[in-house]
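Sample A.
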Amino acid sequence: MTRAPSSARALTAYLSARATLTTIPVIQPAEPFLDMAGEDLRRRIFLTESETGEQLCLRPEFTIPVCLSHIAEGSNTPARYAYLGEVFRQRRAGGSEFFQAGIEDLGDDDTSRADAKSLTEAVEMVRLAAPSAGLEILLGDQTIFEAVLKALGLPRGWRMRLARTFGNEGLLKEMLKDLSDERPKPSLSPETAALSSKADAAGLAAVIAEEMQATGFPAHAGRSPEEIAARLIEKSELASVRLTKKQFAALTEFLAIREPLSKAPEHLKRFSQAESIDLGAALDAFTERTAQIAKLGLDTSSVTYDAAFGRPLDYYTGLVFEIRSKDKDLGALAGGGRYDRLLTLLGASKPIPGVGFSLWLDRLEALA
């Protein structure tokens, strides 16, 4: 077992004063992580099986199991949960077993206030564990990114595809190039191509079923003709979309925004006016959250807003942030964000807003 970090006692006292300190079992059902976590984390999970064949894993993080516990216990909201314990990930520099601490804030309808509290508490805990460390604080916002995509007139299918790449700079660049360049058309028979372009789902499914029968490929061996037809129609619709030069230039300009958070609301306002687009409630919420961060005492000029910054977990929906060392290349010291859809996806009977963060204590030990 990994030895608890020297900062554990001070961090436990901090956590206990601000949230309900909870205990989460080390062995967890694997399915929620495989469904909800980012691709990088899915590849690093330690998997096993129960005696009945249920797929299990060593907990790779705390957010999902804390949310599952809240749902299972039928707890009321708002509720704040704190934790400090070991997590387990394969192929991780520094060891596959390490400690995390953090807070998950569930059910607070004042999302700007809850976001600001999450960020400022993460900074306070990092400074508590490593008081002399120089810090870089990065902030992104998936809601702003999605609002820009919508305001530029991209169809829903492309907006969803681009939103899933948020924070993956290489993949995002590839997809934007795909949207601006001529792309090779799928290799389809004339009949299939015609039905796809007409979005004739029933006719296309019938043709696919005939082809599967003729080639001896059973439908039960993979996707059904209806599923294949729906996917081909979607590909046909997406392939017909191109970004205009103006749209591409606007999106490129937006993604290049990187400046102190104190200046970001006004910059985004100028950007929207110059491009004649309305960011509406997304910009209002961004501006209010920035004010709340300042109100809680964190200098917003010390936080960098990066319009292209995201974190590699699929469940984030709005605010994302990360705290790094200015002096040592250790990766994230702390990271977090908002995940308003996660609890519903995990089985909650009604939507529950959520925001939270985690600290990597072994990296903080390296700075102390």
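Sample B, a different protein:
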Amino acid sequence: MRKFRGARSPGRRWRHNPLRRRSDVVEAWIFLLAWAAGLAGGTAVGVVGAQAMDDAVERQRAARRPVHAVLSETAPAGARDGDNGSRFDHVRAAVRWADGDGILHDGRASVRPGTRKGTTLTLWADAHGRLVSAPISRTDGTTRVMVTGAGVASTTCLVFLAGGRVARLRVEQQATERWGQEWDQLGPQWGRTAG
């Protein structure tokens, strides 16, 4: 009758085994430390990366303010792409707006085709009074923060794991070299017969 063997234990490298080499224990420790460092380091760096992105998003929101601009010309109505003939859903047109100090500025903004001269638009300006794109929405900002944190954490974890793999390969290479040296000494004895 066959004896039942239990499933392999994750700690099998730590048990006493007459065939266990010192390099096996070193490899197991490297594996354990690489995973622990990857998880801890990845988490820490991910949190820092997410916080940095959150700060950048908040700085962008704080630096942009809405301005009320007036269209200085009627926007072209029939604008088409020269390559494929499709209509543009936005065109550039001249606008005029006043900054917080009352200084008038002229520029060009993206508007819907056919928008009439004199139409009031809400645009966004930076601290120097230049037109800029609208700030990132709360939802997009949260998404960017989460993706940045997860990406930085994953990359850091992979770097630790790759470093652990390189270290384990080096230990394995040294063990193989030692085994080859021992075989060179003992191998010839295997061919001898008792006489």
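Observation for Sample B: Residues 27 and 168 are 5 Å apart (CA to CA).
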